[in-house]
């Protein structure tokens, strides 16, 4: 009995070791199974960043899943993703683990390589092991380029996946914003991007200019498709009821912004907000779109009506930004400063020449936010007509906020001058005209005078905002731009004269027309 008891642990150890070895051998063999044995109608989408802050990749995932592809979305958590990604039965969100907190206490020289090693290991674990059957397609966004392009190249070789690269921008051009273009790190980044990005099964581009440039410079191999950004179909212009509901939720957060004291019109929830009112001005009056609000000091609200927009509301202007160096926020600050002076000069003019109070709301998160918001705080001490807030909006409220605004401003200048700002696409989807900073390929999206205006300096931006908001809320020029956005639903190429007329459609229509035929070939 004693001898058997002593030998038992050794036997158990060998059994466990044998099972583990067999399982490991099976997994290794499975990795190198014939490449034709991938799972048809399946896709893995790699986002080396916050999934909830990657709208284009979330829309890709939704389109794959709605077209009956088993879809795996791999990336980091943080922001809440669009609701479709959590309800579609054929879609799985697979969140990558953050590096252990103990690593963050290390010096950057040690932390950086360890973070990359942890990142590489976690991505390969998902793509090679956690997803049992090799997916038919492996879609990755670029940038970031390092190490994602090398990882998907390797996984594609091992598992036989068809790699699709969605070229949002060029990673090395973003690095060149911080370092000289001749810096070794920039050169290495460019080589890495070109080497591992050249031979994908298919390449998607956000602009014609990016496609032409990369085909010429890097000799890309594979299918090449321009897939312009488009908003999902639920992006639309909001009704007065939608605006009332949204600001009823947002209003309680506004008192913490001390600069708004005595700036906003009086309101009292749930009957009125800073943008809407749902009471009659007098007994028997018929409500209109821009009905004058009842004073909030009225003791009784006897006739509650559907909400309408207030005539005394501020003009709501929105700019969506990531607060990064490729967006010169100083241009907007100077334009707002000029607007303040002009509004003061015209304060005693008649209504048709007067400028409204302007509430500038900047959405998004990023590294330069605190710097610019401190500058705004100093400027607002001398402002009477302008206020500027920074808000973070969840995915559900973001399109509603855009659909409630009067004007959008885009400061995106593009590190490569080859991509287009997704924020403008979102604004157009919500029927919101845009003033956009000019760069090389912007006219592929913004048609000056048709769906928005293009500016080159703070002076031009100030002039455009004034011309669009004069006599607010009766704004003929702004209304004309908005009507163009709402009425234009398709794009056409005029082959006879070579003119390309501006067209518009939803993300679903564009994806099904452009990418779906390739996937189902």
UniProtKB/TrEMBL annotation:
Membrane topology field: Single-pass membrane protein
Compartment(s): Endoplasmic reticulum membrane
Q: What class of enzyme is it?
A: transferase
Q: Does the keyword Transmembrane apply?
A: yes
Metabolic or biological pathway:
Protein modification; protein glycosylation
Query: What parts of the sequence cross the membrane?
Result: 12-32
- State which Enzyme Commission number(s) the record gives: 2.4.1.142
Q: Please provide, in alphabetical order, the Gene Ontology terms of the cellular component aspect for this entry.
A: endoplasmic reticulum membrane
A Pfam match is Glyco_trans_1_4
Q: Name one GO molecular function term.
A: chitobiosyldiphosphodolichol beta-mannosyltransferase activity
What keywords were assigned to this record? Endoplasmic reticulum, Glycosyltransferase, Membrane, Transferase, Transmembrane, Transmembrane helix
**What the protein does?**
Participates in the formation of the lipid-linked precursor oligosaccharide for N-glycosylation. Involved in assembling the dolichol-pyrophosphate-GlcNAc(2)-Man(5) intermediate on the cytoplasmic surface of the ER.
Q: Which PANTHER family match?
A: BETA1,4 MANNOSYLTRANSFERASE, CHITOBIOSYLDIPHOSPHODOLICHOL BETA-MANNOSYLTRANSFERASE
Protein name, as recorded: Chitobiosyldiphosphodolichol beta-mannosyltransferase
Source species of the chain? Collybiopsis confluens
